Amino acid sequence: MIDYLNVxxxxxxxxxxxxLPDTEQVSKMVDAYLDSGSNYFDTAYIYDGSEEALKKTLxxxxxxxxxxxxxxxxxxLVNNHADxxxxxxxxxxxxxxxxxxxxxxxxLDDSREDDVxxxxxxxxxxxxxxxxxxxxxxFSFHGTTAYLDRLLKRHPEVEFVQLQLNYMDILRGPxxxxxELGLKYNVPIIVMEPVKGGSLAKLAPAAEKLFKDYAPDRxxxxxxxxxxxxxxxxxxxxxxxxxxEHVQDNVKTFKNLKPFTTEEMGLIxxxxxxxxxxxxxPCTACKYCHTDCPQQIDIASCFSLYxxxxxGDAEWNRAxxxxxxxxxxRADDCTGCGICLSHCPQHIDIPDRLQVVxxxxx
Length: 362
Prior knowledge:
The chain is an alpha/beta fold and 362 residues long. Helices cover 44% and strands 13% of the residues. The protein has an eight-stranded parallel barrel with strand order 1-2-3-4-5-6-7-8, surrounded by five helices. Strand 2, helix 2 and strand 3 form a beta-alpha-beta unit. Helix 1 packs across helix 2 and helix 10 packs across helix 11. The longest helix is centred in the N-terminal third of the chain and has 15 residues. The termini are far apart.
């Protein structure tokens, strides 16, 4: 079994199961991924249908000792330890397993700090480890550098941390500080959003041209995956895979994983310059904001269509696609209530950005 928390080994590819297609396709993806030699599957209680899909395509088709599963406890859905137990057991049932290899307190940010400590979520998860129901405990993070520092200092029992690290967020955002804190506290790092929800798989035409002129046969996404996989202290990189082609491309990248040359790093810097010229919304399509929206607006699709235009797609085409969204669920229907704001890991001013979408597709 692979030790996914050994920082001395090269980073390994993990199977992110947030966005999955139909059962037949997922089965092929699971098999191709396992055939590559890796076996880490990442899901969460709130990933709609993900746990059930992994039960059908992975758990019932492969021996339990041939794979590891990571799942997550959503702090915003629990009020006490009884709620924790209910969610924990429901996840086990959905997956058809009797223990978790990795279990995380999910999506921590500054707004949840007092609540998480008051509810003693870390101690509850640690108790599950003592009972043998969890092998390794950690947390995923979307907050400020100061809060991450407090978390790592306050909870030395944490065995790993899951961070959003990609070349855009590190070289143009705060993620470089998060990475440095992981190294400072000597805690193994699992990378999520290495392709930033797909936004680093399809770039502005000028940025894509830089990469394709240099390496015509490489996918755009592979540059982001290689960057994340060669960061110091990173033990595993979660690829959010939704097609068999995604699996095959990511497996290919990690088979020959090596640090970038000085020239290649220069290409990434040049691509970032080109990307900065194009306005976009930093949505990763996690859809957490959809949970409590009273209008049930398809926020992720609205932002995706807007970003497609920003990257050079035909505006008339994306405007037509925008109009095919269900009536009542478009950006135009946002009432500005702001309920979505506390759910966004990227801290996007969602009501404000939805109005930008409205103006684009008016």
